[in-house]
Amino acid sequence: xxxxxxxxxxxxxxxxxxxxxxxxxxxxxxxxxxxxxxxxxxxxxxxxxxxxxxxxxxxxxxxxxxxxxxxxxxxxxxxxxxxxxxxxxxxxxxxxxxxxxxxxxxxxxxxxxxxxxxxxxxxxxxxxxxxxxxxxxxxxxxxxxxxxxxxxxxxxxxxxxxxxxxxxxxxxxxxxxxxxxxxxxxxxxxxxxxxxxxxxx
Length: 201
Prior knowledge:
It is a single chain. The protein is an alpha/beta fold. It has a domain at 2-48 and 83-109 and 133-198: 3-Layer(aba) Sandwich (Rossmann fold), CATH 3.40.50. Helix content is 30%, strand content 27%. It has helices at residues 15-30, 73-82, 99-109, 156-166, 181-184, 190-198, and strands at residues 2-7, 35-40, 85-93, 96-97, 113-119, 122-128, 134-141, 170-178. The strands form two sheets. Strands 1, 2, 3, 4, 7 and 8 form a six-stranded mixed sheet that branches. A two-stranded antiparallel ribbon has the order 5-6. β3 and β4 form a beta hairpin. α1 crosses α6 (190-198). The longest helix is centred in the N-terminal third of the chain and has 16 residues, at 15-30.
């Protein structure tokens, strides 16, 4: 079993990083032999999508279409391809996932999906290129907004859910919003993150 944790925070060792680590501990508590790969996106060169549509329009039968950009996503997409379970972690910036996480999601979208799904009457929506199924959890953090106001400031969770389902053929088994961390402290959410990790097993 291969676990890939994708960290979208620009700051290592802070709240999001700590909660992702707790979720990894939750997975390892039931799957001690699980292979763990944690990627801090901020440490990698991930260029913005150029909207050239080379990946979207690719007719390849491979599980991943080739992107026209050469950067660290060449290696990261192999990590994603080999994953069985996924953890996504990001703070919310102005209600959305961080810029580095958004760039990652954009680069994943059409490389892992083809425009062959019809939603309502809209043709050309993403359909996973691979039949491989994955499970995933999402951890979103906010420094000041408490959980009771989550619906007003967390659009990141739905963004990530969409890409996991439409491009990675994944099933979200759980998500958490850790809010008001500046006052509550990140430790307030450790147990919840640990138990969320256990849901991946």
